[in-house]
Amino acid sequence: MNLVGFGLTAHDSSVAAYKNGKFLYRKAERQFNQKHAYAGMDWALSVLKEWDIQEYESAESTWLLGKNAQKIKDGNKLDHHYSHLLSCSVYRDSHLVLDSLSTGPADNIFNSSPYTGMIKVGNRHVDRLLEYAPVPAILNTCVHSTEFKHYEHKLGFSQEDFLNFLRDLINNGEHPNFDQLVKVVDFPGKVMSLQSYGKPNYSKIEEWLSIGYGRNKIVQDELNFSEFDHDLIATAHKFCEQITLDKAGSVPGPFSYSGGVAQNVVINRAMLDAGMEPHIDPWAYDGGCSIGALNFLLDKHNIERYADWVQDDEAPVDEPDVWTTIKVAQLIADNKVVGWYQGNGEVGPRALGNRSILYNPADKNAKDKVNKIKQREWWRPFGASVTEEEASQFFDISKSRHMLFNSKVLYSGIPGVTHVDGTCRHQTVPSSDNPFYFLLEYVKLETGLPMVLNTSLNARGKPICATIEQALDIFKTTEMDAICIGNQVYTK
User: Fold this and answer.
1) How does strand 383-387 pair with strand 423-429?
2) pTM (2 decimals)?
3) Ordered structural domains, the chain, with CATH
4) Taking the CA of residue 340 as centre, how many other CA atoms within 13 Å lie in the half-sphere pointing to its CB?
5) DSSP string, 356-410
6) Which tens digits make up the pLDDT trace of 71-113?
């Protein structure tokens, strides 16, 4: 039996498949060498051809169905947010979906309404609670993204033309200029970390809350700024945090959590502090919509969902042996920036030890040195990977396997991964035969710390490396000092 889930969104398009008992996943950026790439059905069908899948049953999750669809349409065509709901691999009695809308003029034509109920999955009825709220995209947005001039300049559209463009796209499911749009409109950078530099205005938050969640007046009149107004960013972020906690507080018991907002580590931590128990898969963002679509089919056929997703990208032919691992640990101890390319790549927006750039977290100059290679914004901190059994010595969250929660740093000797507010987005690595865990053990022998700075193996605007050629290219074209691919270490 062959089952295929299509996730064809405005960004992070992907395909997930069940082929005769084997699970396969691919994201579009792998092919297009463009971060957050959009792809249509032609690309998806080419992937199936490569996988030699000819006869299959499919479910399609697509943004082009429109934001207002609240149930399955046309057989196996799934609403985008329903796909988010289905994407989680762990069954919970309740589920929360929070996704941010664009803060641009598109908000004028998007409406949303919360809904709850009993959802039928295959032959089973599953109690789930879905709350969809138009949380302002300040959660994931760059400070200039609300200015219409950004669109007008690049597209040559008037504001009226742009709104008509989006209406046509949503109503008709296609538009001849769509590819132009997704290529020229910049996908915004994150401000989770930038908000730490400002102070929230709580009176302004109360004013916004009195108007209502995510109203256009707030989004378009209040958040149209082009300079780095740290206090305004902190205010908007705290506003979104309160909205999210309010929504999550209405969900009974432990819940699965997905949607773009589920990637916000600051708000996720606030959920923990409020006594909530969210389960978040690393593919909770749009790249997991294909997994949600496939889960719909797996449930329909009473096939157990898959929980260990990796990409079908290029894996090295071997793993690093002891001496190779020790060499990499020594390089990290010597404050060398090291690439780490092992096995198949993770499914999700973050590298968790298979596609990583690693550095010594004890170096106070770590941020400047690695940011130069990554070409990242100055305010964005770096995460850490630490052995799970020793994590509590350094962070106040002892288990966080997917870098989805902000933790308070308890140890002053890791400035390279400590943000201005004294927090870190960390990954805990359990004891296993994973080469990454062994590397952390050898790093401890060299530095005294069972920990590395860990960021994804990519440069600005490029996807996380999916081929050995891409990995060697970033090594050669940046100031990276070394890279380990399989059992081979390359140095300059």
Assistant:
1) parallel
2) 0.84
3) 1-89+281-309 (3.30.420.40), 322-491 (3.90.870.20)
4) 33
5) EEEE-TT-TTHHHHHHHHHT--TT---EEEEEGGGGGGTBS-S--TTS-SEEEB-
6) 344 457 887 777 888 898 776 777 777 765 432 222 222 233 2
